């Protein structure tokens, strides 16, 4: 009897873990394939029965993580996720330390400034966005998730990961958002080598047509990567003949921010031994 009770514990734990995984899968489907999905659609997407999906949705709804639309009876993401997202941003050290530096970089260059971290390996998550000074209508990209290979921020981060992690990313799925997106592993590998040499990455209309970006890595204590900071603007300005002034500004701010985060004074983009952790600014 006692042995049966003990053996049931792992089974119960496994079922609980599976329920959590399915609930997360539902949230991801609503975030990427939504915004509105019904029980039948969700059941087909995550491969479980409709009663199971319905029970999970009811639980998520009770916690404010999803909501049901009265007109269609379909489900959408709930406001509870926004509270969780805001809580994440409030505890994100890179974002909190970046605020004055990002403002200074926006003032110095006249361009929008983005700060990002590597999220779920293949994407970068924008954790701070300073809008371009005195321009027309702009969209706040805070919380945007972008494939790493299509943006300067992603390349600036991945270039300084250990070689084994870089190779895994290069061998995995590489997104295409525009006709300019680079999805060839060999070309990307050469770009990452150049980023390590000069200390910044460039993006030429690879995520949005007409836009360019320049970004540099940011390091924290012990030389570990914290994320990246960069500027985003019209391609005709950022990639003009005098683009070097932008690159210098971005790299200098990334260096100063890294020092504030506790990194040393070594040069981040010096060549380093294979598979070793990067040195920090």
Keywords:
281 residues; alpha+beta; Arc Repressor Mutant, subunit A; Beta-Lactamase; 2 domains; six-stranded antiparallel beta sheet; 10 helices; 8 strands; 17% strand; disordered N terminus; transcription regulation; GAF-like_dom_sf
Strand content: 15-25%
Unreliable spans: 1-8, 269-281
Q: Biggest sheet, open or closed, and with what strands and sense? A: 6 strands, antiparallel
What overall geometry do the principal axes of the alpha carbons give?
elongated
Q: Oligomeric status of the shown chains?
A: single chain
- Quickly name the level 1 CATH class of the largest domain: Alpha Beta
Report Rg. 22 Å
**Within the CATH hierarchy, at the fold level, what is the topology of the largest domain?**
Beta-Lactamase
- Please identify the structural class as seen in this structure: alpha+beta
Alpha plus pi helix count: 10
Straight-line N-to-C gap = 62 Å
Order of strands across the main sheet: 5-4-3-8-7-6
Number of domains: 2
Brief digest:
The chain is of the alpha+beta class and 281 residues long. It has helices at 2-32, 39-46, 50-62, 80-90, 93-109, 152-158, 163-171, 185-198, 235-238, 244-260; strands spanning 66-68, 75-77, 112-119, 123-130, 145-147, 201-204, 211-219, 225-234. The protein has 2 domains: 2-82, Winged helix-like DNA-binding domain superfamily/Winged helix DNA-binding domain (Arc Repressor Mutant, subunit A); 92-260, GAF domain (Beta-Lactamase), CATH 3.30.450.
């Amino acid at each position: 009897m006692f042995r049966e009770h003990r053996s049931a514990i792992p089974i119960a734990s496994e079922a609980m873990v599976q329920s959590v995984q399915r609930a997360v899968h539902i949230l991801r489907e609503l975030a990427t394939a939504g915004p509105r999905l019904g029980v039948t659609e969700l059941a087909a997407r995550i491969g479980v029965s409709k009663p199971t999906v319905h029970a999970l949705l009811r639980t998520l709804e009770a916690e404010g993580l999803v909501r049901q639309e009265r007109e269609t009876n379909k489900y959408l993401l709930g406001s509870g996720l926004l509270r969780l997202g805001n809580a994440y941003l409030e505890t994100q050290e890179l974002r909190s330390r970046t605020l004055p530096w990002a403002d200074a970089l926006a003032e110095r260059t006249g361009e929008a400034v983005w700060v990002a971290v590597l999220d779920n390996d293949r994407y970068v998550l924008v954790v701070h966005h300073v809008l371009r000074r005195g321009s027309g209508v702009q969209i706040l990209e805070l919380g945007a998730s972008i494939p790493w290979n299509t943006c300067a921020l992603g390349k600036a981060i991945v270039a300084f990961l250990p070689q084994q992690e870089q190779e895994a990313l290069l061998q995995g799925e590489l997104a295409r958002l525009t006709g300019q997106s680079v999805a060839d592993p060999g070309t990307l590998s050469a770009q990452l080598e150049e980023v390590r040499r000069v200390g910044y990455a460039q993006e030429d209309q690879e995520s949005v047509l007409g836009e360019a970006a320049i970004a540099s890595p940011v390091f924290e204590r012990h030389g570990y990567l914290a994320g990246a900071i960069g500027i985003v603007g019209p391609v005709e300005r950022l990639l003009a003949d005098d683009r070097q002034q932008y690159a210098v500004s971005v790299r200098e701010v990334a260096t100063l921010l890294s020092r504030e985060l506790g990194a040393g004074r070594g040069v981040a983009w010096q060549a380093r031994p294979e598979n070793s952790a990067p040195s920090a600014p």
